Structure formats: structure tokens, C-alpha cells
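=== RUN LOG ===
request id: a7f3
mode: sequence -> structure
chains: 1
length: 84
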Amino acid sequence: MTLAERLRKEARMEGKLEGKLEGKLEGEVLGRHAVLRRQLGKRFGKDILDIRMQERLRCATAEQLDLWAERILDAHTLEDVFRE
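=== RESULT ===
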């Protein structure tokens, strides 16, 4: 195997690993998103999220989702969950 072939093979393997990691992380975020939506629906009612809040959830980072999931435990209102 030539050096060029070996480098291409390593680059492909690295790309595959990066893709798998990205997919795993994206799946984790989607899972957190789904859990938080269920929690919010259970706590405040299924139709509580307006379009603006749904978009905020959709664009949230894993860290934001985790923070909001913790806040829901003590929140009295939806605004308590999402306060800045």
C-alpha cells in the first residue's frame, strides 16, 4: 500500500468516526428534547408551548436542555423553566 493510499484510508476512517460521534451526540440531544417536551406537557399541559417556545426548544443545546429539565422540578410556571 502506498503512502497516499494509506493516508486516504486513514482520512476515511477518521471521517467515519467523526460522523458516528456527531450522530450519537445529535441523538442524545433529540432524546433530551423529547423528554423535556413530555415533562413540560405533564407539568403544564400538552398545548402549553407556543411556536416561539417550540423553536427555542428545537434550537437548544444539550446544556440548555439539561438546565431546563432540572428547573422543571421546582418551577411554578413555564416562565420559571425558561428564565434567562
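=== NOTES ===
The helical segments are 3-44, 51-58, 62-71, 78-82.
The radius of gyration is 19 Å.
=== END ===
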